[in-house]
């Protein structure tokens, strides 16, 4: 009698070696950039419609969707987010012009806070709407109640993974509903990021129609271009090694800092978890961003002339590929009702953002980055910001750090409303 194949074998991915997977991701990224600068009419037309960054994100998702790789088993995202992301943040911020960013005005903050409010009210609205058609979603006791799982999505979409974990503990969400909501979180948030990237590629047209004042953004871009014109040079091997040394060197000390500071807050300030002070990732981002801004006041700023932000952007695109690799669009059919809730939730958030942006005549950039700083956090806010221009990536980082600070408070408040409904 032949043994039936085990469940593990049936669902095991074709490729499990992360070195092989990284090679495939690198080839995909190389192919995208090769075709994006091609003079062929097909590729010119294709990339005039579909942003290259979106393709870099979407292609790896096919590997996960069709079982070639397992995005959850792979350690590539962890490595990219913990090693390459901090280095990327340093290299993108060491040439930041804080005065020019300050001149962007308060509209960026207004839209960021609008995004937070949209998530706080969007969850309850989505639950009330769907429960009108599926009443068994509410009135459920116990850890698997839908409202408990939704609090974890609120934590993720306002602050990040640490806030998501906090909400799971605070509201006692069960593992089953938590797992379903994590899938909703990943797919809905990433689909929204794809929409933002498409909008970013049409920013000029959208801003012209809305009558938005983009002068401050244009001034910031012009300053960056002037800096490149003055200090730009062909990078030598010493230049590149110094750039890598700065990026990865600061990353190393960021990890050391996080390893010291995090246990200190855990042991001495247990209540500080609400600020994400118990998260090593939070301290990694804060340290790398702070040092990057500090270096912008030193001679290290001149490394931008040799292509520091280009090296940082290369790191960022590897991160984009690993984020895409975690998405499996087939999961939508496993729990469609939860995805309907998630989609309605995101529609409320997006609608509020667009309405406020229209009322205050804010550029699309403020809306997109304010939204992604909430929904995606420090891992993806710079991606959306740099889709407008590499010089704008630090704005995404700064707003994402603000999201970490507000995350637990606002997600807790959203949870209180959901609890009353559920």
Automatic annotation (TrEMBL):
PANTHER family: DUF819 DOMAIN-CONTAINING PROTEIN (PTHR34289:SF8), PROTEIN, PUTATIVE (DUF819)-RELATED (PTHR34289). It comes from the Bacteria. The chain crosses the membrane at residues 15-34, 46-63, 83-102, 109-134, 177-200, 240-261, 281-298, 305-325, 337-357, 364-385, 391-412. Keywords: Membrane, Transmembrane, Transmembrane helix. It holds the Pfam family DUF819. This is Membrane protein.
């Amino acid at each position: 009698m032949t043994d039936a194949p085990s469940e593990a074998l049936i669902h095991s991915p074709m490729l499990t070696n992360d070195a092989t997977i990284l090679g495939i991701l690198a080839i995909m990224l190389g192919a995208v950039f090769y075709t994006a600068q091609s003079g062929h009419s097909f590729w010119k037309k294709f990339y005039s419609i579909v942003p290259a960054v979106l393709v870099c994100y979407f292609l790896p998702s096919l590997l996960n969707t069709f079982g070639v790789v397992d995005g959850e088993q792979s350690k590539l995202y962890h490595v990219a987010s913990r090693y390459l992301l901090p280095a990327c943040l340093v290299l993108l911020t060491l040439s930041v012009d804080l005065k020019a960013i300050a001149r962007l005005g308060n509209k960026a903050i207004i839209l960021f806070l609008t995004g937070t409010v949209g998530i706080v009210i969007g969850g309850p609205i989505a639950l009330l709407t769907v429960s009108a058609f599926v009443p068994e979603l509410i009135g459920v006791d116990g850890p698997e109640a839908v409202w408990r799982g939704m609090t974890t999505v609120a934590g993720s979409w306002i602050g990040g993974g640490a806030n998501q974990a906090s909400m799971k503990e605070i509201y006692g969400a069960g593992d089953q509903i938590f797992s379903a909501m994590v899938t909703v979180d990943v797919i809905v948030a990433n689909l929204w990021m794809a929409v933002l990237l498409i909008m970013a590629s049409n920013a000029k047209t959208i801003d012209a129609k809305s009558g938005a004042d983009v002068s401050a953004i244009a001034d910031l871009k012009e300053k960056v271009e002037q800096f490149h014109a003055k200090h730009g040079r062909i990078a030598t091997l010493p230049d590149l090694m110094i750039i890598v040394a700065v990026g990865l060197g600061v990353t190393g000390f960021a990890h050391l800092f996080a390893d010291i500071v995090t246990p200190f807050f855990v042991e001495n300030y247990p209540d500080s978890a609400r600020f994400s002070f118990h998260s090593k990732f939070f301290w990694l981002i804060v340290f790398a961003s702070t040092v990057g801004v500090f270096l912008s006041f030193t001679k290290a700023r001149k490394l931008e002339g040799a292509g520091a932000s280009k090296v940082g952007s290369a790191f960022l695109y590897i991160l984009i590929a690993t984020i895409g690799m975690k998405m499996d669009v087939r999961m939508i059919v496993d729990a469609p009702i939860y995805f309907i809730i998630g989609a309605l939730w995101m529609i409320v958030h997006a609608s509020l953002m667009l309405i406020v942006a229209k009322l205050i005549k804010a550029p699309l950039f403020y809306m997109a980055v304010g939204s992604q700083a909430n929904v995606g956090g420090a891992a993806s806010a710079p991606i959306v910001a740099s889709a407008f221009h590499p010089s704008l990536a630090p704005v995404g980082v700064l707003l994402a750090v603000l999201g970490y600070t507000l995350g637990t408070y606002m997600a807790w408040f959203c949870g209180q409303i959901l609890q009353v409904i559920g």
